[in-house]
Amino acid sequence: MNRRNILWSAVSALGAAFAASRASAATEATPAGKLKVVYHLADAEKVNFVLGNIQNHIDGVGGPDHVTLALVIHGPALKAFHAAQANPDVTKRIGAFSRDGVELAACGNTMKAQNITLKELLPGFVSAEKGGVVRLAELQSQGYLYLRP
Questions:
Q1: Residue 63 contacts by C-beta under 8 Å, 6 or more apart in sequence?
Q2: CATH at residue 62
Q3: How far is the C-alpha of 47 from the C-alpha of 24, rounded, in Å?
Q4: pLDDT by residue (tens digit) across 127-138?
Q5: Model's pTM, two decimal places?
Q6: Could you tell me if 92 and 27 lie in one domain?
Q7: Pair 124, 73 in one domain
Q8: What whole-number distance in Å separates Cα of residue 126 and Cα of residue 110?
């Protein structure tokens, strides 16, 4: 065997080992093939679109038992989830998502900026006290796939 073939074989073996380790890590992060997905919502004009995407995701995988979902909201989009002004469709969808186990995280910084408390949001929300972007990074570090429709 010449040096080029030996080097090529070594590089190929290292690549295969790396790919196998990444596949193993992905399998460990998602037991029984259950994906973990976080949706990021900041734009007020995308509220209905993102909520529709989440429902399509739940329906597409065969129900909430087949996926772990989180929705992190910050910025102008959070106003759509103030209980006093939320439209009935948004209220209904958020209630269903909460019952389905979707984590509904509201940015603590945005709540301060909008001068509201967790109690003033629709039921089911938790506070991302360190901030929405921090919560997004935390979830991604836990193996969540990131989607920003």
A1: none
A2: 3.40.1260.10
A3: 36
A4: 999 999 999 999
A5: 0.78
A6: no
A7: yes
A8: 13
